[in-house]
Structures are given as C-alpha cells and as structure tokens.
Write a structure and sequence with these properties.
Blueprint: E1 2-3, H1 4-7, E2 15-16, E3 19-20, E4 31-33, H2 46-51, E5 56-59, E6 71-74, H3 78-89, E7 98-103, H4 108-119, E8 124-128, E9 131-134, E10 137-139, H5 148-160, E11 165-169, H6 172-176, E12 185-190, H7 198-201, H8 204-216, E13 218-227, H9 233-237, E14 243-248, E15 255-262, E16 267-273, E17 276-282, H10 287-301, H11 307-310, E18 324-325, E19 333-337, H12 342-352, E20 360-364, H13 375-385, E21 388-391, H14 401-408, E22 418-420, H15 424-434, E23 440-444, E24 451-453, E25 458-460, H16 463-482
Helix pairs in contact: 3-5, 4-10, 12-13, 13-14, 15-16
Amino acid sequence: MKKLNELYQNSDNRWIKGIKINSKEVEKGDLFVCTKGVTADRHDFIDDAIAHGAVAIVVSRNDIKVDKDVFIIQVDDTNLELPKLCAKFYDHPEEKLKMIGVTGTDGKTSVATIIQTFLTSKKCGYIGTNGRRCYLFDKDTNNTTPDADKLYDYFKEFVDAKCKYVAMEASSEAFYRGRLENLSYDVSVITNITKEHLNIHGSFENYIACKEKLFEQTKQEGTSILNGDDSFYEEVKSKCKAKVLTYGKKEDATLRIVSYQLEKDHTKIIYQYQGKNYSITSPLLGEFNVYNLAAGILAVLSIGCTMEEIIPRIKEIYVDGRLNFLKTNTKYNVMIDYAHTPNGIINLLNFVHTLDIKRSIVVLGSAGERDYLKRPLMGKTVVENASYVIFTYEDPRSEDPKDIIEMMVSEIKNRNNYEIVIDRREAIKRAIDIAKDDDMVLILGKGNETYEKLAHEVIYFNDVEEALKAVEERKSREKIKVE
C-alpha cells in the first residue's frame, strides 16, 4: 500500500490499496486508471469503479466530474502513465530482477519455459501463455503478456519469492498497446517472424516494428539472441543495441545446430559451441524445438551458465500444452497442441509426417476477435498438409462461429478432405471416431487450456479431457458391438 501523495504531488494522503484498469476487479481503496483499449474507453466505467470502491481515478479526459470524495488525477495519456505509475507503486520490482524477454511468432512459450527450467523455478519466474510460475506458485494470467497493472504486481511476487530472474513472453500486441513501456531487458530472444496479428498492427511492417521494440529496449550491456536462419535476421539485428549472439545451422552461428535426429518420443541433437560439439537427447519433439532449445540454451549461456550445467537439466523440460501425446491404449494416436498460426501448424504437421503414421486428422478453429486475416491462410495450410480436417470453433467470443469457419474455408471450397462440426466437443468426438489404426488425431489451438470464451460467458473446457472422454466412449461402443 502507498499513500496517494507518494504517487502524485498535490494530492492528499489517502491510502491506495492497489491499481486496477478493469472496473469489475476494483476493490475498496483501489486507484482506477482509465486506459483506452481498442474497443473500450475505461473513462466510461468510472461510475462502476467508484461503486466497487475506487478512491482515486487517473484520467486523460478533461470532462470527467465525480463525487468530491474521489480524487481525480489528470494526465496526458493514461496508457503511457500506467506502467510508470505501477512501477512506482510496487517499488520498481523490475529493477530487482534480471529481465529476459522472448518474442517471435511461434515458440515464445517453449523458449521462456526452457529458460526457466535451466535457471530453475527457485531462481527464475515465468510469465506467459501458461500463466505465471515459480517454485512457490503456479497461477493463471489473462493475457500472454499482461497489462501493466498486473505485470508489475507479478514482478513483485517474484521479488518476494527471492527470484533473481524472470523469463517472460513479450508479444507484439503488448508492445503495440504500451504494456511494456519503460521496461529494460538484460536478455532479449527472438524465435522467428511470420505473418500474424495483421488486424491489430495494420501491416506486416508494423508487426515487425513491434517485435523489434524488445531489442531496442534491451540494455546496451545486455545480450540479444537471434535466429540466424530466420529470413528477418538482418532486419532485427539492425535494431539491436546490445551484443548479438546467434543460433542456427550456419557455420558462423554462436550456437550451431550441427545435426539432429527426430523420433516420436525424443530428439537427438548435436550442438556446437565455442568449437566443441555437444551430443544431447531432448524430450522436445520436432525440428522447430531443435531451434527453440538452441535459443534457450544460448540465452542462459549469455548470463553465465555453462553447457555442463545446462545439459543435465534438458531432460527436465516440459512445456504444458505442446506436443502432448495422450496415453489412450489404442491403435491410433492422439496429440494435443497449442499450434494456432499457419507457420506453427505446418511445422507441427511436417514433424508428425516424419512419424510412422498413415493419416493425420486435424481438429482446428480460429479465435474470435483476433487476427481474422490469417484465417483463410490457416484453412488453406491445414487442408494442404493434413490428410483430413475438421473445422470447429475456438474461443469465438462475440463472433459467430459459423462466420469464423466460413472465413477459414473461403479459399478451399474445391477441396474434399475437410468437414465442419461447429461444436468443439462434437468435433473432437468425430475425429476420434473416424481414426483408424496408425492414424494421428491432432487437436490444435488450445493446448491444455481449461476454458472456452463464448459471447456472454466463459465455460470450462479442456481438449485433453474431451479427447480422453471420446476415446473411452468409443472403446465402450466397440466393446458392446463385439459382445
């Protein structure tokens, strides 16, 4: 807690319990900041915030009038004000941690998790798609990269837990919305860049520019870790202020991928670092994870770890919701994965088709109120690279699932290797039911998430549970039929 006059001069000495930007989350004694989003101006929710107990309001509009008992602070831009205010309120926890930021179209969650595994959850916190975690807690987050009112609170949680580092996913949308303003990174990492979120950024150039902000905000004495094989390597490198290290297959890579052998349950890799070859066995699957692992290794090498310390911990890596092969005791295979971009989908299918399978049957949707421009490409990519596809809904939010799916199939009407099953539970059942011996069912987009965001509510839903339930129901039907 802090007094208001510790945060703003010319204010009074009332106590501030916390900082909120969602009026529904406000509690008695909180300060409410009226930030502006894409679809909402939080100045419109001041009355609701006060009703919930807000005692002070930060505004950028000059037409705001409220009850005299609520203190009003006028600023030029509430969005830019929020991170500065939160840093001050929480006593600058970001300065007490070594900040490691991971960006890229695909692989952010995996790389950030790999980094935390190497540094250990006792020393390193994680913030991203899979929540916020350290050895003391494992909690959910609303966004891959949370808004500043939550982000600095999470940093303080890690400081209080005696963590020295935080490995966080730094999304392009977070930079676009100003959530990461004023943060300086000790280590920045990029996985790759492919077209994504163009509805938010307006152009591919703007999307890349937001990714590059991570490297512009990296301390000059820090380190930037780049994928030397990515087509945008030179573009990103030109924005780096810190020392640059690279990973990839090229001869001059700092951490070179010499060779790898993909298997169903592991990957054998030879990396070269400082002229020495290291043979490892990784639990992570697919070529893309050879790169993700390289990025994570190089990130921790840059802050003083050694390969001898890192290698024993590789076997401990587990990324929730990624390449999750379910134990079904059936002659067909079932995998759950978070892949939800065209590039992520094709990388996954390329790996799956190196395995000893006959057909790939994919269940796929596209999130509502998100990047609608990628939907036709997603549909085209998946039907061209999978044996059969079942299109369904995935977090439709306020959009009609039929409209979302129609966009996904808009460029593949002449194909005959797909069908539409709008209800996700029924789509998963359908995929399980049509699977034959040695087929692979892939349920994509949600990983191990436990919710579906519908128009007016959030319901409990988990792809893993639904798939296992469908498998058991099929087993029961087939047993009855045999008897």
